[in-house]
Design a protein that fits this description.
Strand content: under 5%
CATH superfamily of the largest domain: Na+/H+ antiporter like domain
Distance between the termini: 24 Å
Shape: globular
CATH topology of the largest domain: Na+/H+ antiporter like fold
CATH architecture of the largest domain: Up-down Bundle
Number of domains: 2
Number of helices: 15
Structural class: mainly alpha
Strand order of the largest sheet: 1-3-2
Radius of gyration: 22 Å
CATH class of the largest domain: Mainly Alpha
Length: 416
Amino acid sequence: MYRVWDFLSSYTWTLATGAVLALVCANLFPDVYSVLTAFPIWFGQTLGQDAGHWLEAHGRLFDIDELGDVARVVTLGSLTNQVFMAAFLFLAGKELWEALILDRGALRGRDALLPGCAGIGGVVVPALIFLGLNTALSTQAGAAWAVPTNTDIAVAYVIGRLAFGPSHPALRFVLLIAIVDDAVAMAVLALFYSDHPLDVFWLLAALASVLAVYGLFNLWPRLRDGSDPMKPVQTRIRLRFGLVPYVLVGGFAFYAVQRSGLNPVLGLLPVIPAIPHADRAFGVFSQAESHLHDLLNRAERMLSYPTGVILFLFAFCNAGVDLSSIGPLTAIVVIALILGKPLGIALGTVVAGRFTGPGLPTKDLLAAGAVASCGFSLSLLFADAAALPTEQTDAIKLGILISLAAVAGVLALIRA
């Protein structure tokens, strides 16, 4: 097992700190928490929280009875979920891109079969359990079906490291499942959690801008250099322009994705393939990448520190739930995560094993499935994107938080 970047562990503690502060503030000082996270920064038509939901939940606190033709309310919470978290998805997307494309990528060719099947199984089974229990109990929260499908890569890494040790193959397996889950989550956000009709013009505009920058600052210099090992043109372009062209096109791509009707948190993903990258992969969030000088890894290093602050804000804005909101939806989420995730991963592994041969021992596989049931950041994002009434959203988020505590108990039973 390769050495994983230290910042991945630090993200877990920033998430935990934000979540604990949010729970304390929301339950002891609810009005203060609402002012901090739901104060209306501005009113608009495309970006922000649904105006009807905001008015129902917070209108009385701010003495606002009606919003006229306002469609969206921008708050710190919505800015964090829809704008700032794009940096986190950029980091996850970068690792996914390298795992799929680069030499020795962990998800290239047949290497993708086992984690791919396990990851997809770990998405499908929890979603089916959630939908089945939602129908059986008539909780009317089907829009939140994606909540139990994701693995939080930072939390899973820390818990997996404690459970298995730093060099156990099950830890690498968990990281790969988390990356597959992130890929599915990005697709789900694009396909199922967009509030506006799709405007193809803006998607094409984003694609055209990315292709233009790729051609001028990446492909053309490589063609000019040919087989020259010194790469003089690429070096000159990199030293003269650095990340500036990609920052500019990233800003435009974010705007275009948001205007297209897709969830704006996906806005930085299109620029990832355009940025010059290393020749080979070293592993998901490998420490070795901190010593590489290609522009894509430089961008990752630049974003890694502000992303820690963003994850703290995200946890603070999303984990502040009323503890009295516990209900059937809470139990549904816990069951879907704690039971559905390990079961789905095990089934996916069995299917893949017919083509790849045996994988992890059964005990380690079950433990890896339990670790992978640590849903947090994107699970909370799905809970928010489902746009359910506040009481239901709080019950779902409480289920996410409870499931994290339940993972420790499940692991203790499996590893005993």
